[in-house]
Specification:
The protein is α/β, with parallel strands linked by helices. 21% of the residues lie in helices and 16% in strands. Strands 1, 2, 3, 4, 5, 6, 9, 10, 11, 12 and 13 form an eleven-stranded mixed sheet that branches. Strands 14-15-16-17 form a four-stranded antiparallel sheet, with helices on one face. The chain has a two-stranded antiparallel ribbon with strand order 7-8. α4 packs parallel to α5. It starts with 5 loop residues before the first strand and ends in a 7-residue tail after the last helix.
Length: 472
């Protein structure tokens, strides 16, 4: 299987379009490793997560399907929420494992785990606080091992959600038994394993990721591997380890972005050291847009989402337009760029084309292969309009230069969160020409009713048909 590449997907938590130097020369955060990858590979300028918050975008990456087709219609999972991915549904990991890859997930999971209780009784799994009902001595059901991963080391949700513990495969590493003291008022109370330290989380993930690569190459140098690495940074509580403190000029959150770049460097170093750089396809991105400032509320003269409108949670592009850097030596031209609108959920169809795995039936219903774009064969690339989704469940559709938002306001954290038409003839939604007005400042809903009608029909068809990809 020497002709198949190793595949690495690294996805930060809340890293914005303006955080990475390759996208924003004025960034106050050094990102030399991601900048190196951009110089050696391709930089996508119009790549989007399927949602402006993390759980649904992660579901989409792993399955190639929009998460709003599941029970999760808005918001995100908590640390105790049930699994969103049906074990019978093919994932990126399961199709690669079927093709002979060894697979690992390292980092933040956040698409659900089925925790067991001592009595077998159920409990309110959507309560984000630690209710004391979980029996941490029992194995966890329905996690990464159930959806195609050979190995998992990570945390259940975000770093501000209990339980505060590592999970390895289907067991906690230690037993959460001590009440966690909060670093800030936004960090939720709950149990932690004794000695737990938030700042040790990502360095541990980096070590585990490197260890997986080393073990995979030692066990069988000819067997390809798939690594899905998802740092907890720069999501709150923004407590970087000592060696990362002050590495940026953008406060603790900026130091968290630097930490993500350091983790990328650890992986790149392992590939170089083991001699498998040339045979590895690596993606670097983020699960959704950034927050506008540090946990202390200071902006630090840094634009985390660049000049895009909006932030994490919003339907505007700052909520879901992501840095996406891809390197594949010998396939992707160095220092290249792609301006096509794409979606992170396209990973599934991309790997299926790479391994020549046909997509049929209820598989990757919203995923389109990026392989033609990676090979700069733009004429061979065709995809349906991208559907965006916000924190509150607001929809938008991007087709060519047009972006239609089905509603007024941000649909997320930014004000106004929801707008209302109070004047006769006022627009009922938002329409932007993203070529002429990529900052989304001029709503031309009323000026182009034919575009609104067309994109509304596209959205309705996408919702009702159950898929974006034409049926085989």
């Amino acid at each position: 299987m020497a002709d198949l590449p190793n595949i690495i997907w690294i996805m930060a938590d809340d890293m914005g379009y303006g955080d990475v130097g390759a996208y924003n020369p004025a960034s106050r955060i050094p990102t030399p490793n991601m900048d190196r990858l951009a110089a050696e590979g391709m930089r996508f300028t119009d790549a989007h997560s399927s949602s402006s918050v993390c759980t649904p975008s992660r579901y989409s990456v792993l399955t190639g399907r929009y998460c709003w087709r599941t029970r999760l219609k808005n918001g995100v999972n908590g640390g105790f929420s049930l699994p969103l991915i049906d074990p019978a549904r093919p994932t990126v990991a399961s199709v690669l494992r079927e093709r002979g890859y060894t697979t690992a997930a390292v980092g933040k999971w956040h698409v659900g785990l089925e925790w067991q209780t001592a009595t077998g009784d159920d409990f309110d799994r959507e309560d984000w606080q630690d209710t004391g009902a979980v029996d941490y001595t029992k194995p966890i059901i329905g996690g990464p091992l159930a959806v195609g991963f050979d190995y998992f080391f990570g945390i259940a949700g975000s770093l501000d959600m209990p339980p505060y513990c590592f999970v390895e495969n289907d067991r906690t590493v230690g037993i959460p038994s001590a009440e966690k003291s909060s670093y800030n008022p936004q960090q939720r109370k709950g149990l932690m394993t004794p000695g737990w330290q938030d700042e040790a989380c990502d360095p541990t993930f980096a070590a585990k990721a490197v260890g997986f690569i080393e073990a995979a190459k030692e066990e069988d140098p000819d067997r390809p591997f798939f690594l899905y690495m998802t740092p907890a940074a720069p999501h709150r509580p923004c407590v970087p380890p000592t060696f990362a403190e002050g590495k940026s000029q953008a406060g603790p959150r900026g130091d968290g972005v630097w930490l993500v770049d350091w983790m990328v460097g650890q992986v790149l170093g392992a590939l170089d050291r083991l001699g498998c750089t040339e045979e590895t396809l690596i993606f670097i991105t983020s699960d959704n847009g950034a927050r506008p400032c540090d946990v202390d509320g200071i902006m630090h003269d840094h634009k985390s989402c660049g000049d895009l409108r909006g932030y994490k949670g919003d339907i505007w592009d700052g909520g879901h337009r992501e840095p996406l850097i891809v390197r594949w030596p010998g396939v992707i031209a160095p220092d290249s760029a792609c301006d096509e609108p794409v979606c992170l959920g396209d990973l599934m169809a991309t790997v299926c084309e790479i391994i020549a795995r046909p997509i049929s039936g209820s598989v990757a219903e919203d995923s389109f292969s990026l392989l033609p774009l990676l090979k700069q064969d733009d004429e061979a690339y065709e995809r349906a309009p991208v559907v965006h989704h916000s924190l509150s469940g607001m929809f938008s559709v991007r087709s060519g230069k047009w972006k239609m938002v089905l509603g007024l306001g941000s649909g997320g954290f930014s004000d106004p969160r929801r707008g209302y038409s109070v004047m006769p003839g006022a627009p009922e939604g938002q329409l932007y020409d993203m070529l002429a007005d990529w900052r989304e400042q001029h709503n031309v809903w009323n000026e182009h009713p034919e575009v609104v009608a067309r994109l509304s029909a596209v959205l309705t068809s996408t919702q009702e048909s159950g898929r974006s990809v034409p049926r085989p």
